[in-house]
Amino acid sequence: MISISEMISINEALQVIKNNIPSPVVQNYFVEEVAGKILAEDIHAPEPSPRYSNSAMDGYAVRWEDVCGAEQNSPVSLKIVGESKAGAPFQEITRQGEAIRISTGAMITEGCDTVVRIEDTEENNGVVHIMTVRRQGQDIRYRGEEFQEGELLLTKRSKLSAPEVALLATVGINKVKAYKPCEVAILVTGSELVGKGEKIAEYQIRDSNMIMLKTAIEESGGKVVYCPYVPDEKKATVDAIGKAQADLILSTGGVSVGRHDYVKDAALENGYSPLFWKIRQKPGKPLYLAQKENTLLFGLPGNPVSAFMCFAHYARPVITAMNGLPFGWPTVSGEASEDIANRGKRTNLVRVQLRWRENGGYCITHPKKQGSHMLTSLTEADGYIIMEPGQNLLKGERTDVYRYDFRRDPV
Ligand code: AMP
Ligand code: MG
After folding, report:
1. Which candidate among 113, 121, 302, 381 keeps its CA 20 to 30 Å from the CA of 332?
2. The model's pTM
3. Could you count the other beta carbons within 10 Å of the beta carbon of residue 74?
4. Which of 191, 193, 200 to probe ligand 1 with, by most ligand atoms within 8 A of CB?
5. CB 350: neighbour CB atoms within 10 A?
């Protein structure tokens, strides 16, 4: 157990978080509801695909033994005895010397074993002249040629997107087990804050954390379920934490050493057990973590950049883990295009830009304005690198870049 008065390292903090992630919840969902969710079961085919042998072309279903000698200068002529349409098959057996009209996707009728496409035929007076054929069985999609009944179609932990729901629909599966998206409450604290569109006095601050976190949570696959503003008052903070029913509570502000910072006390009063307070990092030193039953509460710092960086490195992986994905970060390797040094005493989360080079690979540049009150250090960045105290990343050296969700394809 880490003493809460002790400042800990990034890796120690991550270990504590991993040990306390609320258990993921698996639910049955209709396929209409699963876009973006993660599958929580293996799916086996309840039936083969195609379900019945059908035509790959508009043309004529025929018997190979009738048509195998057909050539341009000696076509084979067959009597057209019926039609098999998509959704309306021909019910009789096709006999020697007969052909049936067939549409793409229509069932191959009994007796036929080959399809000749319209382009290779001529038709007049109820007779079709087959001008050319390639092989027995041509242009037929056979029952089960894609997969047989019982074959594994989708594996547990696949992401459910348009192709996956289409595959489920095609085999008649209407409901699947998927991970329930992590439910998140956001408590934005601060008596100096003014909400969207409100008149602002000289000594007030426009809130940016609420909209920032809502957006980041949604981009990470979480669901915001409660999001009050909380003044810097003990009772209001206790009440807000008490009302927050979620897997994850993210408060911003009020976790430093100020006289009006109530988040830690209010969490305690609500029965939360503190897990750590303060990480040897910049930005985001005052990050606080507490737990009660199946809920984790992150007290993020108030500075928007600190709050965002703590979200990206600590809270976002909890959301992805609860959603059925690994606890981790999207990373790419990048090469420093200039020297970057950490001369401070804390581990530095340095916001960086990625550039794709013509000869391949990413290179890293480093916006100079890195203040934790400077949101442009985020808008100008594609991700961040982690630099230990005293570390000097030299031009040409490679390092991992933790990439922001919202910068999938930096150029
Ligand atoms: P705190 O951690 O509450 O002491 O806040 C640290 C700094 O971040 C202060 O300058 C606050 O005014 C600022 N801040 C806190 N919350 C927000 C917010 N929601 N939006 C913008 N700035 C904030
Ligand atoms: Mg505050």
Report:
1. 302
2. 0.91
3. 8
4. 193
5. 23
The identity of residue 240, as a single letter, is A
The ligand 1 atom at the shortest distance from the C-alpha of residue 189 is 16
Residues with Cβ within 5 Å of ion ligand 2?
190, 253-254, 302
Distance CA(113)–CA(67), nearest Å, equals 11
- Cα–Cα distance list, 278 to 1, 54, 62, 120, 246 (Å): 15, 66, 78, 77, 23
Flag whether pLDDT at 5 surpasses 90: no
377: which residues sit within 8 A by CB, 6+ positions away? Answer: 305, 351, 367, 369, 370, 371
241 backbone dihedrals φ, ψ, rounded to 5°: -65, -40
Ligand nearest to the CA of 255: 1
Cα dihedral 406/409/410/411 (nearest 10) = -160
Mutate-to-test residue for ligand 1 from 252, 308, 373, highest number of ligand atoms within 8 A of CB: 252
pLDDT digits (tens, 9 = 90+) for 147-159: 999 999 999 999 9
| Residue from 209, 227, 303, 374 to probe ligand 1 pocket by mutation (most atoms less than 8 Å from CB) | 303
Cα distance between residue 320 and residue 391, in whole Å: 30
188 Cβ below 6 A of ligand 1: yes
